[in-house]
């Protein structure tokens, strides 16, 4: 999924996590994605730009698209990150410049490692299901792996942990001895947790990780109820998490070792410097103009033009702190 904002605002992340357990509600920004999909952008925010290596979180839906085209995101580039597409309802047709061409459905992991460079598109198929609901997540690659070869993984079967009224699907990393097959470059975890009404359970956490939860439906109780669409940062130092729910509820748990490296995130690129990001933009624009290079490649099968990169901001692209307090 592309960051389609055209204001070319600079998003930068670096530094250390909040020490100790906290309960910090982070506000969402509403962003238009293409012509027909509106998303709630939760990371990066003004107060917190990363959770572990997770550096971007969009939540969209549930949207009634029975009479709408649904998601329509034209081919666009990525470098220096991994994208995680996670559907709760509906389906999305993924195409990429490596030749990937798959239909992603709920419960399936679409994990794309951009590395040195890749391009992809995302569309609701025609015909498509009447409801679209999901999350798009990005993971910053560490400096040692930022220019790794691009790859795309589509995992249909993921491990599931169950308890009294709990069903936890492990997207990435490990929970309770269940390991995701997705390839990672930083220690982190991503879990889709469904809670039945009346449940009261505890799940193990890595105390060295910082964690956050995104409520996608219902009103789970984590030191207090959380409304749908809420993104709650939990800090570090928790060895377990108590989960309760008065109604059927669902959330995404994200966590990881605090990402110590300073990075620049601008548009769809993550880099270690402004020069690195500017070079990626120049390479993409050159490919669009047909004036040289094949860093990103063509996305075959998409009917329409690719997205042009916005203009670079007037202010220098430079790494800063990962929160407002240490930016």
TrEMBL record:
Residue runs in coiled coils: none
InterPro entries, per the entry: Pirin, Pirin_C_dom, Pirin_N_dom, RmlC-like_jellyroll, RmlC_Cupin_sf
Gene3D superfamilies in the cross-refs: Jelly Rolls (2.60.120.10)
Ranges of residues in domain Pirin N-terminal: 39-139
Domain Pirin C-terminal residue range list: 191-286
Top-rank lineage group of the source organism: Bacteria
Family: Belongs to the pirin family.
Name listed for the protein in its UniProt record: Pirin family protein
Taxonomy of the source species: Bacteria, Bacillati, Actinomycetota, Actinomycetes, Pseudonocardiales
């Amino acid at each position: 999924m592309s960051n389609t904002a055209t204001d070319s605002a600079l998003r930068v992340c670096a530094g250390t996590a909040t020490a100790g357990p906290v309960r910090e509600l982070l506000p969402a920004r509403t962003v238009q994605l293409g012509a027909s999909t509106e998303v709630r952008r939760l990371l990066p925010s003004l107060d917190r730009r990363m959770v572990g290596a997770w550096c971007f979180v969009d939540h969209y839906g549930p949207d009634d698209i029975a009479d709408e085209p649904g998601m329509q995101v034209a081919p666009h580039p990525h470098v220096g990150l991994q994208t995680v597409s996670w559907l709760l309802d509906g389906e999305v047709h993924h195409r990429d410049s490596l030749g990937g061409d798959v239909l992603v459905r709920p419960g399936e992991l679409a994990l794309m490692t951009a590395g040195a460079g890749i391009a992809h598109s995302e569309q609701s198929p025609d015909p498509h299901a009447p409801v679209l609901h999901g999350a798009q997540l990005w993971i910053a690659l560490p400096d040692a792996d930022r220019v790794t070869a691009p790859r795309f993984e589509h995992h249909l079967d993921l491990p599931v942990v169950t308890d009294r009224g709990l069903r936890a699907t492990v997207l990435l990393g490990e929970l309770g001895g269940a390991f995701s097959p997705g390839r990672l470059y930083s220690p982190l975890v991503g879990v889709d947790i469904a809670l039945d009404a009346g449940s009261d359970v505890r799940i193990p956490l890595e105390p060295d990780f910082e964690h956050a939860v995104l409520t996608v439906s219902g009103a789970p109780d984590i030191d207090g109820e959380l409304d749908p669409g809420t993104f709650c940062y939990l800090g570090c130092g928790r060895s377990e998490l108590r989960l309760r729910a008065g109604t059927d509820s669902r959330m995404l748990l994200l966590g990881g070792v605090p990402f110590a490296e300073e990075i620049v995130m601008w548009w769809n690129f993550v880099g270690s410097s402004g020069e690195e990001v500017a070079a990626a933009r120049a390479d993409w624009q050159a490919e669009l103009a047909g004036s040289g290079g094949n860093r990103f490649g063509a996305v075959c099968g998409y009917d329409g033009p690719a997205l042009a990169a916005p203009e670079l901001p007037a202010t220098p692209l430079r790494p800063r702190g990962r929160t407002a307090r240490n930016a």
